[in-house]
Amino acid sequence: MAFPSHRPRRLRQSAAMRRLVAETRLHPADLILPVFVREGISEPVAITSMPGVVQHTQDTLRRAASEAVELGVGGIMLFGIPEKRDAMGSASLDPEGVLNRGIRAVKSEVGSDIVVMSDLCLDEFTDHGHCGVLTADGAVDNDATLEIYGQMGVAQAEAGADMVGPSGMMDGQVAVIRQAMDDAGRQDTAILAYAAKYSSAFYGPFREAVDSQLTGDRKTYQMDPANRREALLEVSLDLDEGADLVMVKPAMSYLDILRDVAESAFERGVPVSAYQISGEYAMIEAAAANGWIDRDAAVAESVLSIRRAGADTVLTYWAAELARWIKEGRF
Ligand code: PBG
Question: How far is the CA of 25 from the centre of ligand 1 (A)?
Fold first, then answer.
């Protein structure tokens, strides 16, 4: 009888054996929790398409941030939902605007125990829902938007953000934000560039989460899902412009891109992040609610796969829950 000469199953025979040889691990410090804070509400508001995720009040936002710290979560990324929107997104620059207030509240709650990050984009603040301001004929005006982004960077840094996350996909945004923050004496505020951000159908639930006013799409500024090489161009431009970290978004339908970006980021010596977005969250929650998949195992596997593909850190709406499971030794 011919025996197999190789028996990979030897290393799979017990949980202890598998744990010893696991190539990728989940750790709370590698997770970043995205959170929403909404102006003008006195109780948190549930987001129907993202079961378990809410729009926070300033108060519950503070509590969510300190819970994340207790669980050892690495970062927290803030999104703001203002009461009033206008064509220029002016609430984004107001130090008393919902996002800037939220950053201050979180920073005063957590100090330097977690990295405080803020979304730097206009779509939550404009009444038309685009990530930039518009020209007279309704196109998104790249360079006029850059000026506002620069000011947003300064406002968020002054509110206490450790790291800003430009997510609008305007050309030149990282350079302008870096310059504006440097000129304001904010050299130490880092930039997490949403470098390869695709125009994705999986953002659907996020639009509910921020009460988006968008009609139409973002195809003139976000990347075409058909393109792979272009992601490397975006990453290299953002790094040349001064990005400290680069991100791929969405994550699960873009693991090939994440792998490419991780390799090029390795050559450039920078960390890579990936954003497991609202639609990815919603799909798993919906399948689990129907009893079609094992929820906790699917959540852990999905985040593990994003880490395995090359992300050093993962933005995920499950960050706090997953951190708890990891602490309990479940994953
Ligand atoms: C733009 C922004 C979006 C998301 C993060 N930042 C929305 C968009 O590009 O349409 C989506 C995140 C998610 O879907 O979870 N401010």
Answer: 27
The secondary structure of the chain, three-state, reads CCCCCCCHHHHHCCHHHHHHHCCCCCCHHHEEEEEEEECCCCCCEECCCCCCCEEECHHHHHHHHHHHHHCCCCEEEEEEECCCCECCCHHHCCCCCHHHHHHHHHHHHHCCCCEEEEEECCCCCECCCCCCCECCCCCECHHHHHHHHHHHHHHHHHHCCCEEEECCCCCCHHHHHHHHHHHCCCCCCEEEEEEEEECCHHHHHHHHHCCCCCCCCCCCCCECCCCCHHHHHHHHHHHHCCCCEEEEECCHHHHHHHHHHHHHHHHHCCCEEEECCHHHHHHHHHHHHCCCCCHHHHHHHHHHHHHHHCCCEEECCCHHHHHHHHHCCCC
Predicted confidence band of residue 178 (pLDDT cuts 50, 70, 90)? very high
**What pLDDT sits at residue 155?**
98
Does the Cβ of 123 fall within 6 Å of ligand 1? Answer: yes
Please say if the pLDDT value at position 1 is more than 80: no
ipTM: 0.96
Q: Which residues are part of the catalytic machinery?
A: 197, 249
pTM of the prediction? 0.97
Ligand 1 binding pocket includes 119 (Cβ within 6 Å)? yes
Taking the domains of the chain in order of start, what are their residue ranges? 24-327
CATH 1.10.560.10 fits 24-327, yes or no: no
